[in-house]
Amino acid sequence: MNTIKISGIVKESVVDGPGFRLVIFTQGCPRHCRGCQNPELIPAIGGREMTPEEVLQLIKQNITSLTGGITFSGGDPLMQADALAEILKLLCQEYPKYNIWVYTGYTFEEIKHWPVLQYVDVLVDGPYEENRRDISLAFRGSSNQRLIDVKASLGGEIRYLGIS
Ligand code: SF4
């Protein structure tokens, strides 16, 4: 069975996508970007190893009346893509009303064929690049990172979310 390392959860974030969002942080990222906002989540060692069903239960326990969507951040959630796909499949079945955002250091072009993307609404892609830092951007830290409308982009031209 696939498991995933979870390092934390925030109930009502307003910085990881629009509205009040439940945010799940995964442990581990191999990139070591200079200026990474969550350097404590870079080591692969740490966090709590959980099954997809356990993560679903954790999400259920933390949803509030304000929850408008669910975001996966890290670390890089796509370093554990198989387990993430299982979690997202369960989530889409249980909570189809919530849109799903995923932050990753991969670019969309690198991973667009990965099965996990069928469950993702918005991908915030690419590593943080300190020399392209721009605090005016919504929901991302550097100008190379993009808010990609995944479902509209699979199989065609890349479509961006209408948020600047
Ligand atoms: S890809 Fe993201 S999580 Fe990984 S080191 Fe870079 S900024 Fe940090």
The gist of it:
With 164 residues, this protein is α/β, with parallel strands linked by helices. The chain is built from four helices and seven strands. Helices cover 20% and strands 23% of the residues.
Architecture overview:
With 164 residues, this protein is α/β, with parallel strands linked by helices. The chain contains four helices and seven strands. It has a seven-stranded mixed beta sheet with strand order 3-1-2-4-5-6-7. Helix 1 crosses helix 2. The chain is globular. The chain starts with a strand and ends in an 11-residue tail after the last helix. The mean pLDDT is 96. The structure holds iron/sulfur cluster. Iron/sulfur cluster binds next to loops.
Tell me the layout of helices and strands.
Layout: E1 4-13, E2 21-26, E3 48-50, H1 52-62, E4 69-73, H2 81-94, E5 99-103, H3 108-111, E6 122-125, E7 146-149, H4 150-153
Parallel strand pairs: 2-4, 4-5, 5-6
Antiparallel strand pairs: 1-2, 1-3, 6-7
The structure holds iron/sulfur cluster.
